[in-house]
Fold this sequence. Notes:
- It comes from Streptomyces daliensis.
- It is an enzyme of class 2 (transferase).
- GO terms for molecular function: leukotriene C4 gamma-glutamyl transferase activity.
- Keywords: Acyltransferase, Transferase.
- Pfam families: G_glu_transpept.
- By secondary structure, the chain is mainly α.
- It has a single domain (2-88), classed as Gamma-glutamyltranspeptidase, large (L) subunit, C-terminal domain (Serum Albumin, Chain A, Domain 1).
- Helices cover 46% and strands 0% of the residues.
- α1 packs across α2.
- The model has no long low-confidence stretch (mean pLDDT 85).
Amino acid sequence: xxxxxxxxxxxxxxxxxxxxxxxxxxxxxxxxxxxxxxxxxxxxxxxxxxxxxxxxxxxxxxxxxxxxxxxxxxxxxxxxxxxxxxxxxxxxxxxxxxxxxxxxxxxxxxxxx
Length: 113
């Protein structure tokens, strides 16, 4: 589903004449990052989990997500909130957002703060 969402995040007008331009690549990469953030929060749950797949792939939701793409690259993991639901992130991802390095999480590096 994440690849389908990447496609849904592409804006209209991203045609062959823009192929290979910095703007084209930026749009593809930033859209992929948004889809991967949603993947971390929403896709891949156990069978029977309440995944809002219809919303995640909907035109209005992806238009809202597409509006997050600005002229500069984002360094943040920015999962969306389909149907107003708070994103669910693994403990590892939440710890990284709080400033923990991969080394610190493994007990081999300095602690944040």
